[in-house]
Amino acid sequence: MNRYSFPDNLIPANDGSRLSKLKQYDVVDTLSEPEFDTISSIAAEIFQAPGAFVNFVDAEKVFFKSNLSMFPTNQVHRNDSLCSLTILEDDITVFYDTHEFTELSQNPYVHSEGGIRFYAGAPIKTPEGHNIGTVCVIDDQPRNAITEIQASLLKKLASLALEKLESRRMKRQMSQIVDDHLHQVTHDLLNPLTSIMISAQLIQKKAGDNEMLQKVGNSILERADFMQKSISNLLSDASLNEGEEQLAKESVKIKDLTDHLYRDFKMILEHKQQVLHINGVTDTLLHIDRKRIHNVLANLVSNASKYSPLGSVIHLRYSESEKTVLFEICDEGAGIAPEEFDKLFRKFSRLSSRPTGNERSHGFGLYTVKVLTEMHGGRVWAESEGIGKGTLFFVELPKY
Fold first, then answer.
1. Strand runs (DSSP E) across 78-117, as ranges?
2. Which of 105, 204, 304, 349 is deepest in the core (most CB within 10 A)?
3. Quick check: 45 and 124 in contact, CB under 8 A?
């Protein structure tokens, strides 16, 4: 027999501070993550239950961070959720048969077809004592009891969910520190680069007919200009990561994109005795943010050069269908190990391969490629036969 005593109010006295703490974790309305799905799956296995969740109780809704059930939604109204009752208690909350409670007779998730008959939930408690969510299991059949081991493990899973939240929060803080440092360093570099470019222009001006000095001045100017653009791109990428970047779309010829790319990388490739072959390019128009898609392709060509040996060939191919265009960047470089594919487009991820000319890698170029491509409604992926066998990157974009 259930002996749960229903409270007069679903809103705890500390709800304001509780919600403030929940907001610090920035978890509500985020995508599913494997770590939280693992917690749900373990809970479901422990209870042999058809449904399990990791939920967070917001001001007016309960958000399902992990939903391993037949429920087609990722949130319910706070008043309709049994988890709203669970966060009012420090111990687990169990309903062996929800139909025994008149207080739940109007609950749409209890008395619907296939609704919740059995429920067990453990609160996710912060170090400050705020219950911000639950790890819970459900069944459409009533039960008579749960074991002490099941109850204990459910509470431990709730503690594990909090550890995952704390880990996410620390990673975001570290990323912010890195981004702040990046802003500082890049801004500090821009001023001397401007001076270098002015000096190079003065060399060209005073060189007159001296062909060698003209060439030196031009070389310095081109390198400084490329570095300035790279630094500006880093600043833009940091703004993108903070959610500040907006696309400025325009009609751009693909040939203009590839010509610009070739000019930017001419000296870099010559330094490593590498060749960039551009195939299949036409005057086809794309409706894109020119700077951002140039950044996408430049990142991929830069990586191809960094991780390829001296004297190698890099291919940039282009093809199109009725609705999309496809860029392929193929290199003869280090390749990718099968177990590292899932790390490719993660922020600050580092692979086992190392640049072949002592170049530096900041760890978020491919992350930026993925974000910018997806902002355009496109997709990016890679293929490789393994270490030492080169890599092929694909960028697919809609034409309009």
1. 93-95
2. 304
3. no
Instruction: Please write the tens of the pLDDT for every residue from 336-368.
Output: 888 888 878 876 566 677 777 666 555 567 888
To 10 degrees, the CA torsion angle through 19, 25, 26, 27?
A: -90
The answer to pTM > 0.85 is: no
51-57 and 61-68 strand pairing? antiparallel
Closest to 397 in 3D by CA, of 316, 274, 293: 293
Residues forming a β-bridge with 317? 279, 328
**What does the pLDDT look like over 224-273, one tens digit per residue?**
777 777 766 666 655 555 544 567 889 999 999 999 888 888 877 887 89
3-state secondary structure of 141: coil
What residues contact residue 191 under an 8 Å CB cut-off, 6+ apart?
none
| DSSP-derived secondary structure letter, 342 | G
Strand 275-279 to strand 313-320: parallel, antiparallel, or no bridges (unpaired)?
parallel
Q: Stretch 131-138: mean pLDDT, rounded? A: 98
Taking the C-alpha atoms of residue 305 and residue 310, their distance in angstroms, rounded to an integer, is 9
In this structure, which amino acid lies at residue 39? I
- Whole-angstrom CA distances from 201 to 24, 160, 189, 196, 214 are 51, 61, 19, 9, 9
- Rounded Cα distance between 140 and 138, Å, is 7
